[in-house]
């Protein structure tokens, strides 16, 4: 079943086309990453899906409902963590969660929400004293209060330290494992690659790449890199390489095979390929390729 369906969505801000003819679907219980450079249109898309902005044209459905006209019905089933949360700075973390619970149907217990977000040690701290990353964790605690079926996370781990970030990843994975559908925007490509099973990349309001994470990456070329031996010239090598400082980099559809070819060549000549690194394509490679082709 599809939890989110977007078909031909367009949305302008004062005549500026922020989102243009965007279509994608998110299967129930999966994590979907919406990626793209600053200003690509991700937040606008999420805000339309969350019912904060009305679609300009096109069709949008969340759990089969229209996020704008069925806002009241959806509010109980959707959790939202947007980029700019408005908190009361003088309230403590526990008081903030307490107030939010009053507005939430069948909320999680306060301490469970704080623990999920890794804020159990901060419950007595005033919101104004929280660090940026801790405020993001409070956002997460609030988004999770109502045990949502669909969770919108707009740059959820910005400002978090590595430990908080990996803890958040675990929470997101667990939620998806329990059936929650998660739509994530992030500038951390590693985060998207680790969490999401499908993705769409936006640029200037349009989708420029989309599909399953594994298939999308498998279709890209991987990379073999090694330190260029002083006695070897690039033209001597059996495969084409580019030089990045003292690193020789070979892009290949099958990087394992390319590495084998290079190693057999080196072994036959008694040459050592120091620091050899073989990896399949990452989201970063996809981004670099997309921005190269956009130039
Ligand atoms: N309320 C608004 N009024 C006018 N223009 C807006 C408004 N909101 C967004 N825009 C413009 O629409 C475009 C898309 O913005 P959006 O916030 O959706 O991008 P984004 O992909 O989320 O970017 P970021 O990664 O920086 O958060 C940008 O050019 C932005 O300046």
From TrEMBL:
A molecular function (GO) term? ATP hydrolysis activity
What is this protein's record name? ABC transporter ATP-binding protein
Query: Does the UniProt entry include the keyword Transport?
Result: yes
Which CDD domains does its entry note? ABC_DR_subfamily_A
Q: Where in the cell is it found?
A: Cell membrane
Q: Name one Pfam family in it.
A: ABC_tran
Gene Ontology BP terms: response to antibiotic
Of the GO CC terms on this record, one is: plasma membrane
Q: Which residues form the ABC transporter domain?
A: 4-229
Where is it mainly found?
membrane
- Keywords for this protein: Antibiotic resistance, ATP-binding, Nucleotide-binding, Transport
Membrane topology label: Peripheral membrane protein
Q: Does the keyword Kinase apply?
A: no
Stored PROSITE patterns: ABC_TRANSPORTER_1 (PS00211), ABC_TRANSPORTER_2 (PS50893)
Q: Which domain of life is it from?
A: Bacteria
- Record-linked Gene3D superfamilies: P-loop containing nucleotide triphosphate hydrolases
